[in-house]
Design goal:
It is built from 13 helices and no strands. By secondary structure, the chain is mainly alpha-helical. The protein folds into 2 domains: about 1-100; about 125-200, no CATH class. The chain is elongated and about 55 Å long.
């Protein structure tokens, strides 16, 4: 195992459980507070290894202004060679750390790509945190037309969130029935148009 892999296991636990249940950042935050230099170096190693968790973690930390700037530089630098998973998490983290919504372009690029649907789902979910500009609404609406059901599902949920609705798409029987595989492209397009219009209303 690499040094990052060992550190990751100690800070976050079993990788399968991290994937299945989602990461708990409390232990890493404690380690970062105790030795920020080591923790930052470990994140840099994780980024170099293409681990999306290393790109996600910075936005979960309590940071000084100097630490924040250092992590922004590190995330920006890693974009040159980032895997799609790292790219989308880096985009979300850079938005959280800088407040600049322009970083949404990194996440949209992944959503619109042909990478595995599991990664595109993460992109759809991460976009919830960004303000819904017309360009972002259009990009996520295109995702509601995706051939992969779960990509459509999570894009629809992001549009619902932007429209100010707290429920899940599965709570709306009519709309949910129009995003399932058997509904087909025409219905997927109708849902996309309706939800996009609701955001922009």
């Amino acid at each position: 195992m690499s040094e990052w892999a060992d550190y990751r296991q100690e800070a976050f636990g079993d990788p399968y459980l991290v994937w299945h249940d989602g990461p708990d950042f409390a232990e890493f935050q404690a380690r970062f507070a105790a030795d920020p230099e080591l923790a930052t170096r470990m994140l840099a190693e994780g980024l170099a290894e293409g681990d999306a968790l290393a790109a996600q973690t910075p936005r979960e930390l309590s940071l000084t202004t100097e630490q924040r700037a250092a992590l922004v530089r590190m995330l920006t630098e890693t974009l040159k060679t980032a895997t799609p998973g790292v790219q989308l998490e880096a985009g979300a983290s850079l938005f959280a750390l800088t407040g600049s919504a322009e970083w949404s372009a990194l996440v949209v690029e992944v959503l619109a790509s042909t990478v595995h649907w599991g990664i595109r789902i993460d992109a759809a979910i991460r976009l919830k945190a960004f303000p819904p500009t017309p360009a972002l609404v259009a990009a996520v609406a295109r995702g509601v037309r995706d051939q992969e059901y779960l990509v459509r599902y999570h894009c629809a949920n992001t549009l619902l969130h932007w429209a100010g609705r707290d429920e899940d798409i599965s709570d709306d029987a009519e709309l949910f029935g129009m995003v399932v595989d058997t509904a087909g492209l025409a219905d997927w397009a109708r849902v996309a148009e309706r939800l996009a219009a609701a955001v922009q209303a």
